[in-house]
Amino acid sequence: HVQLVESGGGSVQPGGTLTLRCAASGPLFSSYGMGWFRQAPGKEREGVATIDTDGSTRYADSVKGRFSLSIDNAKNTLYLQMNSLKPEDSAMYYCRGVCGDSEYRGQGTQVTVS
Predict the structure, then answer these.
(1) Residue range 37-82, pLDDT digits in tens
(2) CA–CA gap between residue 101 and residue 41 (Å, rounded)
(3) Which residue, 16, 26, 39, 71, shows the most beta carbons closer than 10 Å to its own?
(4) Dihedral of CA 82/83/89/90: which sign?
C-alpha cells in the first residue's frame, strides 16, 4: 500500500522560503511520476510541479524560477523548495504519485504567506 506523507508547511512572510517534504512508503520514484499540487479555499486545484521517472521536471508558470523539485532516493523523499513566496502561494499543498491507473496523494501540508 502506497503512503505519501507531507511535511514542512508553515507560515512565512512574503519573500520567505519553505521546503516541503513528501516521504513515500517505499522506493516509488523509479516507477511513479511524482509531483505537487495545491488548493486554496474557494479555488480550483492547481498543479505546481511534476517530476517524471526520467527525472524531467515541469513547473506551473506561476512558480517557475521560484520553486524547485528534488528527490532523495535513499530517503524515498520528494522535496519542493519554495523561494520568494508570495501571498498567492498560500494553499494546502499535496504530494501526488501516479503510475498507470494508480494515483496516490498525501493528506497535505498548509502553507500560509502573509
Answers:
(1) 999 999 999 999 999 999 999 999 999 999 999 999 899 999 999 9
(2) 28
(3) 71
(4) positive
Helix/strand/coil for 88: helix
What span, in angstroms and rounded, lies between the C-alpha atoms of 108 and 105? Answer: 8
| CA–CA gap between residue 37 and residue 75 (Å, rounded) | 21
Residue 68, C-alpha cell as written in the block: 524547485
φ/ψ (deg, to 5) at 39: -145, 125
Contact 48, 80 (CB under 8 A): yes
Cell of 30: 523509479
Q: What are phi and psi of 107, to 5 degrees?
A: -85, -15
Residues 80-99 pLDDT 10s? 999 999 999 999 999 999 99
Residue 22: Cβ-neighbour burial (10 angstroms; 0-12, 13-18, 19+): buried
